[in-house]
Amino acid sequence: MKAHNEDTKRFEQLILPHLNAAHNLARWLTRNDSAAQDIVQESCLRAFKSLHRFAGGNVRAWLLTIVRNQSYTWLKESAGERYYVDIDDEAAMSEKDKAILAHTDTPEVWTGRMQDRQALQNGLEALPAIFREVIVLKELEELSYKEIAGVTDVPIGTVMSRLARGREMLKKELLKNDE
Amino acid sequence: MTSELNCNDCANWLHPYLDNELETEIAARVNMHLAKCASCKARFAELQALRDGIRQHAPYYPAPELVQQHIMSQINRQKPAFSSRLWLVPAFSATALAASVMLYLAVPSPQDMLMDEVVSSHVRSLMEQHLADVPSSDKHTVKPWFTGKIDFSPPVYDFTAQGYPLLGGRLDYLQHQTVAALAYKHGKHIINVFILPTPGADSTPQTLSVRGYNIIAWQKNHIAFRAVSDLNAKDLNELSQLISAGGT
Prior knowledge:
The complex is a heterodimer of chains A (179) and B (248).
Chain A: H1 2-14, H2 19-30, H3 33-50, H4 59-79, H5 85-88, H6 95-102, H7 107-114, H8 117-126, H9 129-140, H10 145-152, H11 156-177
Helix pairs in contact in A: 2-3, 2-4, 2-9, 3-4, 4-10, 8-11, 9-11, 10-11
Chain B: H1 7-18, H2 24-36, H3 38-57, H4 65-77, H5 90-94, H6 101-106, H7 111-127, E1 134-135, H8 139-146, E2 166-174, E3 177-186, E4 189-197, E5 203-210, E6 213-220, E7 223-229, H9 233-245
Antiparallel strand pairs in B: 1-2, 2-3, 3-4, 4-7, 5-6, 6-7
Helix pairs in contact in B: 1-2, 1-3, 2-3
């Protein structure tokens, strides 16, 4: 039992401090309160079981990797094949999108949108998950490109391009709300 | 003297510049350009405003207190460390002590989750009769086909002479990323070999059995291979060795 107590202690010290980050990511990815809670619990249990194999390094990124995988499993199960549509969205922006983006001659309204909690939430939730997650990990969890690359399992260059695309898409969403 | 950026180059660097991810020298060039170019400067200001807007005003969802309580009560009910389940993956625990954190990033969830995905992709490729986007046994046709579709270059070889003709290649999805899949044939059996980049260290082949399919998994030169088939493990291993050795 002693080993178990030590594991528990280690878990409390290493994992619990990142519970909010874990929940935040799961909630943004699933857009669903109860799914996010389930995912965080399941991910923490998995982390607990593998904790004695954790050799050190960035615990938060490690936990977020688990949370992300669980979240995508949930997304896949709840959306079926439609999930894959996300990946195709990485294709180039349509001409119409570009036209909306070029139309930025209303800075006041636009700034207002960027500070409007509801508009930001709607805008971010409208993005495909692979773009939403890089923005959440960058701006809300303040991870570096390298850490995000680790969590999302893609090269750093992909993180960079997804972030750029994600921000442009979010901008578009925010402007769209305005119309 | 460093050369001056044009607006196109500047636009490419603007996001990593905003995120403090540029090397000093490039950051200085962006900085210099922004000081002179009003339109890039306006664009950058907009990005900054968007970033600040998200950071300060987008919802953040902390874990409800109940979640922590649930987790702790579940953990306290857990059996002591080394639950039986872990022993199902002996090779994984054997390497555990030596493994770096990168290995966990590459295989963060239990192996069985990934392996399950490998089998599902294999079965789907057979059901949909969609083995190859580029049906060819010529490695000089298949390998270039992948260029520009994925950001790594998968090793492609034909082993017709050894009894494993290459049927072709296609793109597939594993672990939420686009991967290369090569289809081989041996007798009446189809073999899918999934190839994806990994930051993890090299590892020797491990044989697993999932839902009646055999899987051989190994990593070499930062590329992970997963060969899956209903073929027997011995022959599947032979093909894996051929691929690993690099072919001719």
